[in-house]
Write a structure and sequence with these properties.
The protein is of the alpha+beta class and 456 residues long. It contains 14 helices and 18 strands. Helix 10 runs antiparallel to helix 12. The longest helix has 20 residues. The radius of gyration is 22 Å and the shape is globular. The relative contact order is 0.15. This is Transglutaminase.
Length: 456
Amino acid sequence: MYYDLSYMSVPLPEDVLKLKNYGDFDGAATLIEHLLSNELPEALRKRLEIEQDIIRIVGINEYPFDFSEASQMMEATFKDYQEQELTSLKETGKVDWLYIDGKIHFQRRFLLNLIKTQADYEARLIVKEDNEVDRLRKQELTQNVQLMKENGSRKVKIHLKTSIKVKKQYERPGETVRVYLPLPKECKQTSDIQILKTVPEATFIAPEKEAQRTIYFETILKEDQVFSVEYSYINQVDYVDLDPKKATEVQPEFELHEQLPHIRFTPYLEQVLTEVLAGETNPIKKARKIYDFITTKVNYSFMREYFTIDNISEYAAVNLKGDCGVQAILFITLCRMAKIPAKWQSGLYVSQYYTGCHDWAQFYVAPYGWVFADLSFGGGARRNGDLDRWNYYFGNLDVFRMPANSEIQTDFNPPKQFLRADPIDNQRGEFEYENQGLPYAYLDVQQDLIAMDELV
C-alpha cells in the first residue's frame, strides 16, 4: 500500500500537537482515533492516519533514555563529566531529545553522535576508540581525488552481499513473509549489473530502471531464516571541473518541481535562498553558493527516522543540522527553487574499510549535464581542513557507491502491503508479515563487501 506522504504538509489539530509535544503519545493516539470517527476533510483524515504511524514509530525505542540514564551513560563514557553538561548540550542542540509523558528523553544514538560530531567529547573518552578505520577511510577518499584528477576517471567492479532477518523475539515461523532488499539500479555511473546468488530463491527481481530497485522474496518463514542476495556491478565515475564561464544561457526546466512534504518551497526557504544567492545568476555559481551554505552552516548529526520529520529540507535549514540525506534533500530543494534541476541518489557507501547507508544528490547544468554533490562528505572534508576534497564533492563522486534509489517516496515493484520501515528511501530493506510491516528495531540488516577490483 502506497503512503502518500504529501499529506504530511497538512497541519495537525492543535490538541493533537499539544499532546504530542508533551510526549503523551497514548493520549494523542486516543484523540486521533476519536477525530477519525467523525466526518473530516479527506486531507485532514489522511494526515491523521499518517500521524498514527509516526507516533507508533517514535515510541519504538527511538528515545529510550531519560535524563538520569543519559547522565549515567555520559559519566561512564567521558572524563570529568559534570551533570550540568547534559543540560547544556540539550539547550545548545547538540543532543536530540523530546518529551515522553512530560519528561525529557534522549535519542538512542545521542552518545555516539556526540563522539562523532564533537571533537572535545571524543578527546575526553575514558576508553579511546580505535580511529584507524576512520583514518584509512579519509586517506582512501583523499587518494580517490588524486587519482580522479590524474586519470580523469575511475572504474571498479564491486561484489556485494546484503542480508536481512527478523530478530528472534519477533520471529513467527510458519507464517508468510514478504521481504525486500535493495539492488543496484541502472544510472549514470553503473553498468553490467549481475545477480549472482539469492537465498532463498527470489520471487521477483525489479527491472534495473526502477526508481527504488529491489529483490523480492515471498515465502513461509523458517526459524532463524536469513534472506540474502549477492550481486556485482561496474561503477565508473568521470572527473569534472565545473567552469562557470562555460555555463550556457539557456538551462533545462525539468526536475524543478516540489515534492511534498520534504521538497517544499516554503517562505522561510525563499528568504534563505535569497540571502545565500545574493543576486547571483550564473547556474554553476548559484549551485556552488548553495553547496557552500550547507557544507559550512549545516552541521552533521545523526537523525531519527525520516518518517517522523514533517519537512526535512526546512528542518535542516532551521536547525542547521542533519545527516547525509537531510543535507542532500535541502540541497535539492534549494537548487530547484533556484531553477537548477536537482534529484536524489542513494544506496550504500562501499569500501574495504566500511560499508553502510549513504545519500547524495545530483544537479544539472548545461553543457555538463548531470553532475554530483555529496554534501556530508564535502562538509566533513572542510571541517578536517581538506579543502581539495571539499571542492571535489561539488560536481564529483567517488567510486565507492552502490546506487539503489533515484527518487524518494516511491513505491516498490511489487508494492509493499503495509507502511514501510522507511517510506522515504530504501537502503536496508523491508520485512512484513501478512498482518503488519516491521520497523528496523525488529530487524537485523547486514552489508558485506566481497570484492572490489580496479579496472583499467
